[in-house]
Amino acid sequence: MRFYVSLAVVLAAVVWGQAGFAAQKVVPRGNRILAVDVGTAEDNDYNAAFAKAKAVGMQDIGLSQDWSDIESSPGNYNGQWFTIANSYYPKSSTAVTVTLRPIHNWRKMVPADLMDVRFSDPRMITRFEKLLDFVFTQMPDTKLDALVIGSELDVYLGKDPALWKDFTTFYKAVGAYARKKHPGLRIAAESTLKGFTGSARVYLKDLNRNSDLIGVSHYPLDDGFAVQDPKVVGGIFDKLVAAYPDKKICFYQWGYPSSTLLNSSEEKQAQFIRETFKAWDRHASHVLLVDFTWLHDLPDSALDQNAKYFGLSDPRFLAFLQTLGLRTYQGSGKDKESYRVLKAEAYARGWGR
Predict the structure, then answer these.
(1) Among residues 2, 58, 243, 274, which is most buried (max CB within 10 A)?
(2) What's the CA gap between 156 and 326, in Å, rounded?
(3) What pLDDT, in 10s, does the model give residues 28-79?
């Protein structure tokens, strides 16, 4: 529907003017991919939540699983989430990015019998290849945008050259296997922005020689979880594009909490969305995907689970997790200002039409 882009810009400018926003020149969406992490509100109505995400133009949805949750013991797999995805998302022409996590942040998430096995060990590599065979058979009808191997893996690998070497060997082998079994599939490894800009950057350069896409996770926070000024977004995009000018960048986790405990607000969260689209427009040819985390705020019960999983009970950390949503949790959920801004920004560029 490229014919209507100019009209969309005009209409968006009118909407922004009514809302007090300054109109700006925008870049049509082109081949860029807009993704949203879809979680439900209190009513637990996934269909309604999914429709809300599709309404802003969502094209891709992420499906993430720890390896240990899929393979409980050698060769025994649980693929229910993959089969559900295969029956649901193709009907709405929604692609899926699958993240399989042998590493998730600070934890090694492999089957119990492999916990003491090095990543470069042929046993580890062969088992993951069999895991890939299983996952692919569960999703025969699904369009896969990418396979991401590991989530925020730089946190676990740290500054240990031997660990990085082992994982790089593993990643190169299983990535090549995935491409062979699923021709055209793009491979990425997700790391934090701190990894890309800090002491892990050299290791990540070496690892990402084997990547088709550069996977990034980031939430603009200070060490105490207080939010940074939304204007930092532009510099973040600039640094990553400068570091990887020849590969497409994908922000697989990208969010900003609205809690006042973190010196934030719904308006700051909305400004983060605006700054994201400004930066994305400037780097439209280099940044392929942005996945906004997430659609709804979290309930207290989910906070308890995350506190146990990450081993953190700091109220500021929990406030960060709970208020990342673009919509509230109570009842059927209500749009925050960030959801309305996301919709307007996306519409202006041709998404959601």
Answers:
(1) 58
(2) 29
(3) 999 999 999 999 999 999 999 999 999 999 999 999 999 999 999 999 999 9
State the chain's mean pLDDT as an integer.
93
pLDDT band at 287 (very low <50, low <70, confident <90, very high): very high
Q: H or E element: which one contains 110?
A: none
Token duo for residue 30: 């082109």
What is the structure's pLDDT at 100?
Answer: 98
pTM of the model: 0.92
- pLDDT at 24 (0 to 100): 60
Classify residue 130 by burial, with Cβ atoms within 10 Å: 0-12, 13-18, 19+. middle
CA distances 136 to 130, 144, 197, Å, are 10, 10, 34
> In the block, which residue shows the tokens 């891709």?
60
In order of start, what are the domains of the chain with their CATH numbers? Answer: 2-348 (3.20.20.80)
Strand partners, 215: 190, 250
- The CA radius of gyration of the chain, in Å to the nearest whole number, is 20
What end-to-end distance do the CA atoms of the chain give, in Å?
Answer: 8
How far is 187 from 48, CA to CA, in rounded Å?
Answer: 31
Alpha-carbon span 27 to 348, nearest angstrom = 9
Q: How many CA atoms, within 13 angstroms, populate the side-chain half-sphere of residue 212?
A: 15
A 10 A CB-CB count for 46 gives 13
> What phi and psi, each to the nearest 5 degrees, are found at residue 269?
-60, -40
- One-letter amino acid identity for 316? R
Residue 168, burial from CB neighbour count under 10 angstroms (0-12, 13-18, 19+): buried
